[in-house]
């Protein structure tokens, strides 16, 4: 159990550390209460392929 | 369903198992909103209105023949092939379940946090190289490798990290070889300085060990 938790904690700590560092280095680090939206369809497909994850396409109108 | 369904803890967690793209060709909403020191579209953090309009233009013909019912949520395979769609508003849980279903269909994938972390370390490496800070560049890559290196789903990103580390190792080995030539030519002090730099800056790589070995074997100077 401890072995399973350790990598998760390491990742969480590393991500948090990198997040803090990156926040100072470059604006645009995604705050935890927002969805990260891809900037283009091509970018979405490239990232989805690299990560092997689905693409969620959301169509909306104002109002 | 309006965009207020998105800033929800369970929704955000589920969204990290996908790549999300927001498509809206209207810009009647407030175009800009301050998020701390940053300014983005009022509906979406991290996007400007031009982007969601462009996304709409690029994707609408891929998924609709006639009019576009809004809202519509579509889940696709990584190549963009549609898996399932839901037209109309829905509760956050329903969209979360749709995402889970799509994720199960696609197979084991890399979470967004791990992906952004790995890509962030590659970018930090690139920045450090531009600033001439080899040691920092290698440390950034090692941090990426240490954190996500054992995750099989991170293979594509880890392979990029490992390829970069190998490039550094090769460059370091070339410097060591040049230092050995300097030693043979009697330029021992110059070679020692170079080897110490490799030992310090390329730490953890094979070339640093090679540099240490050469330093130990250097002839004594007066």
What does this structure look like?
The complex is a heterodimer of chains A (63) and B (222). Chain A has helices at 2-25, 41-51; one strand at residues 55-59. With 63 residues, chain A is mainly α. Chain A has one domain (2-51). The longest helix of chain A has 24 residues, at 2-25. Chain A is extended and about 35 Å long. Chain B has 2 domains: 3-106, no CATH class; 112-216, Serine Threonine Protein Phosphatase 5, Tetratricopeptide repeat, CATH 1.25.40. Chain B is elongated. Chain B is built from 8 helices and 5 strands; from the N terminus they run H-E-E-E-H-E-E-H-H-H-H-H-H. Classes of the chains: A mainly alpha (63), B mainly alpha (222). Strand 1 of chain A pairs antiparallel with strand 4 (72-76) of chain B, so a sheet runs across the interface.
Question: Layout of helices and strands, plus pairs?
Answer:
The complex is a heterodimer of chains A (63) and B (222).
Chain A (H helix, E strand, L loop, with lengths): L1 H24 L15 H11 L3 E5 L4
Chain B lengths: L8 H7 L3 E5 L9 E3 L2 E3 L8 H15 L8 E5 L5 E6 L4 H15 L5 H19 L3 H15 L6 H30 L3 H14 L4 H11 L6
Percent strand of chain B: 5-15%
| Mean pLDDT figure of chain B | 94
**How are strands sequenced across the largest beta sheet of chain B?**
2-3
Give me the strand/helix succession of chain B.
HEEEHEEHHHHHH
The residue fraction in helices of chain B comes out at 55-70%
Shape of chain A: extended
Structural class call of chain B reads mainly alpha
Q: For the record, what CATH class of the largest domain in chain B applies?
A: Mainly Alpha
Structure annotation, total helices of chain A: 2
Give the assembly state of these chains.
heterodimer
Shape of chain B: elongated
Beta-strand residue fraction of chain A: 5-15%
Number of domains of chain A: 1
Biggest β-sheet strands, sense, barrel of chain A:
none
Main sheet makeup of chain B: 2 strands, antiparallel
Determine the structural class of chain A based on helices, strands and strand pairing.
mainly alpha
């Amino acid at each position: 159990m401890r072995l399973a938790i350790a990598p998760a904690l390491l990742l969480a700590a590393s991500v948090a550390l990198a997040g803090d560092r990156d926040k100072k280095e470059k604006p645009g680090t995604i705050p935890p209460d927002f969805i990260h939206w891809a900037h283009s369809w091509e970018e979405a497909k490239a990232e989805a392929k690299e990560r092997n994850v689905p693409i969620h396409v959301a169509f909306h109108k104002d109002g | 369903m309006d965009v207020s369904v998105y800033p929800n803890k369970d929704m955000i967690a589920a969204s990290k198992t996908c790549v999300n793209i927001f498509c809206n060709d209207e810009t009647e909403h407030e175009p800009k909103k301050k998020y701390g020191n940053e300014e983005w579209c009022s509906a979406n953090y991290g996007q400007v209105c031009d982007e969601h309009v462009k996304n709409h233009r690029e994707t609408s013909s891929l998924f609709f023949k006639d009019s576009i019912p809004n809202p519509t949520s579509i889940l696709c395979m990584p190549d963009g092939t549609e898996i399932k769609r839901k037209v109309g508003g829905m509760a956050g849980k329903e969209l979360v379940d749709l995402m889970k279903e799509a994720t199960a269909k696609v197979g084991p994938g890399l979470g967004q946090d791990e992906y952004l972390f790995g890509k962030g370390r590659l970018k930090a490496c690139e920045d450090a190289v531009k600033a001439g800070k080899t040691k920092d560049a290698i440390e950034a890559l090692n941090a990426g490798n240490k954190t996500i290196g054992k995750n099989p789903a991170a293979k594509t990103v880890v392979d990029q990290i490992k390829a970069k580390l190998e490039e550094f190792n090769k460059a370091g080995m070339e410097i060591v070889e040049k230092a050995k030539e300097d030693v043979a030519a009697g330029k021992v002090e110059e070679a020692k300085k170079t080897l110490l730099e490799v030992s310090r800056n390329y730490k953890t790589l094979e070339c640093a060990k090679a540099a240490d070995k050469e330093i130990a074997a250097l002839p004594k100077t007066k």
